[in-house]
Amino acid sequence: MNCSDITRSRLQSFYKIRLKTALVFPFILQITIAVGLVGYFSFKNGQKAVENLAQQLIESVSVRIENHVLEYFNKSFQVLRITEDNVKAGTLDLNDFEGLKQYFWNVVAEGDLESYLSYGNEQGEFIGVEHLETNQVQLKIRTLETEPMREVYRLDEWGNRAEFLKQAEYDPRQRPWYQAAKQAQKPTWSSIYPFFSRQNTDTALGMSAVHGVVTIGIGDVTGHGLESGILMVMIQSAVRTLKEVKEHDPIKFLNTLNRMIYYNIQRMNSDKNLTLAILNYSEGLLSISGQHEEILIVRQGGNIERISTMDLGLPIGLDEDIAEFISHTLISLNSGDGAVLYTDGITEAKNRQKKFYGLEKLCSIISQNWYREAEGIKNAVIEDVKSFMGEQKQFDDITLLVIKKK
Asked: Which of 42, 144, 218, 311 is 20 to 30 A (C-alpha) from 228?
């Protein structure tokens, strides 16, 4: 065999391989592209279906909550109107606290209309009857003889005082419900405010835990009153719904929530919006997304890192789509570390000289008291804010949450 035969044989083998490749490769390429496109579109369609389902659930829950809230408010108006009629008719004397106690007890004992009725006057006297979730009914009373203390009693099944429980300083004239009614000089709603006897806050705070991830939200709605309160209820229901459908991506989470709130605000013909920060904590890592006040990260020794949220989102309800403006940051928390969340009702609290309490003072008090448990830190801040304000009126809601890792 000479060189030309060898060359010819190799060329024939080469062309044979190329011919197989040329015939098989297009089929493989077509199959790969087809499978890839089917997979991609299936993923996108599935993703869209989940988003649509989440949106439908959010809207459904929001409508039910809104209807429930309005029904509850209508009951409150009915009770208020009946009480006002009794006062005008002379069958209910506002100076007769024993008669007021029995009247309030008759209303709240069943728990169908109101769970808490109270009355306060310009002399600082106060009486309230509350039906607790434990089915216990309590009397809360402050008179000229007991001031500045408000006494709390357990009532028996006939509405009589059965047991003295506790006493604490209390002045109804400083409470938002009293100030709102006095200013309006007519039946009116106050802003949503902390209700201390139930050890929670009815302002801008929601919390849930799903599959080891604790989600905390803190925000502040523009304005005050009923409309702002309903918007905050919508936010809480939306957060819980998104947690139930296991939406953990911070951008999709906030954008979906914003879209639902935006549509509801448009439907209500309202100009409300709110700041909202969402924090997810799991196994020592804290994820922060959304725009609100600065988040304070406190290390074990009391050193504070101030995390700006200005670049982590936009106010909720301003625009239909805010995905491109949402970001998130991750913070590692070790034993003894923690975070402090607050609303501007603290930093913008004023004293008689019209000076703000300020973020620097808040950080200082937190740092000085970080050796305490979370509850002790919270109490120290609240007491310092009250001391700073003195007798100055509180014009904005105050929300404070202290988180500390053991």
From this structure: 311
